[in-house]
Amino acid sequence: MAGGAGSAASTESDVSQEFWDALRVTTQARIGLGRAGDALPTRRVLEFAAAHAEARDAVHAPLAVDTLAAQVAEIGWGRPVHVRSRAVDRSQYLRRPDLGRLPETDLGQELSPAEGADIGVVLADGLSPRALHEHGPAMLAALKAELEQRYRLAPPVLATQARVALGDHIGQALGVRTVLVLIGERPGLSVADSLGIYLTHEPRPGRADSERNCVSNIHPPEGLGYAAAAAVAAGLVAGARRLGRSGVELKDTTDHTGSRSIEGGAGAT
Asked: Which terminus of the chain is less hemmed in, N or C, by CB atoms within 10 Å?
């Protein structure tokens, strides 16, 4: 009897393990972790601690500005200008999000209007400088390939201790119609190197978050790929120019087959 009961329990456990193993390959979420008595197995606890440490490291790692600037220059978009926010260091940046949205100095002293340029691009460290290091140059190259035949591009700008809204000041100083901010997204316990692209049409200080569009979760191979993200961003740029605005009224309706459509919402003209 005991042997039979044990065998049945073992079979049940094997079936359960196969079920969770099949699901785990489809997601980076922590699912089906198992139990050790009343707690998680030691292996899972250690994995969680390591992921938490990785996320913290991603937030606090400084951006190697000179290295990134050299990589960007090799793409052929121009050597980037480096600007800073009013946050004097990482500690203040994390405690005072408002300072990360404002330029350290008058940008007119650092940036010259890009005569005739349609689009400006800002590479910002955000909450994961690691994401910008790992994906920024390749993402910029994909955007260049997607946009350069249709639009005039301003030289790129590197921004440190930066929040998304700093791009509004930069875009206004450059005199561009649309600004794209490539920024390290907040690290999670599954992904610490995710990059986002925030698009703002007619950038100027005071723009609300509802006036932006975001392409997020860029971190191939698990996340969105560079070419796919660039195609979505290009579609949003075209849609924003057509509508005369970006934000909640501008929608990317790409479906699972890859069929892409950019639509204007209620009130669009």
From this structure: N
- Quick one: 136 and 156 in the same domain? yes
Q: pLDDT (tens digit, 9 = 90+) per residue, 24-58?
A: 777 777 777 777 888 888 888 888 888 889 888 88
Q: Annotate 176-204 with b (16+ C-beta within 10 A) or e (fewer).
A: bbbbbbbbbbebeeebbbbbbbbbbbbbe
Note whether 76 and 141 are same-domain residues. yes
Tokens standing for 93? 């940046």
Tell me whether strands 178-184 and 157-160 are parallel, antiparallel or unpaired.
Answer: unpaired
| DSSP conformation letters of 179-207 | EEEEEEPPP-SS-S--EEEEEEES--TT-
| Domain that includes residue 19, residue range | 2-59
Q: Which of 59, 78, 107 is the C-terminal boundary of a domain?
A: 59
Q: What is the pTM of this model?
A: 0.84
pLDDT confidence of 258, banded at 50, 70, 90? low
* Residue 254 binned pLDDT confidence (cut-offs 50, 70, 90): low
Question: Which of 107, 216, 230, 242 is closest to 167 using CA atoms?
Answer: 107
Count how many Cα atoms sit within 13 Å of the Cα of residue 254 in the half-sphere of its side chain.
Answer: 12
The answer on pLDDT for 262 being more than 90 is: no
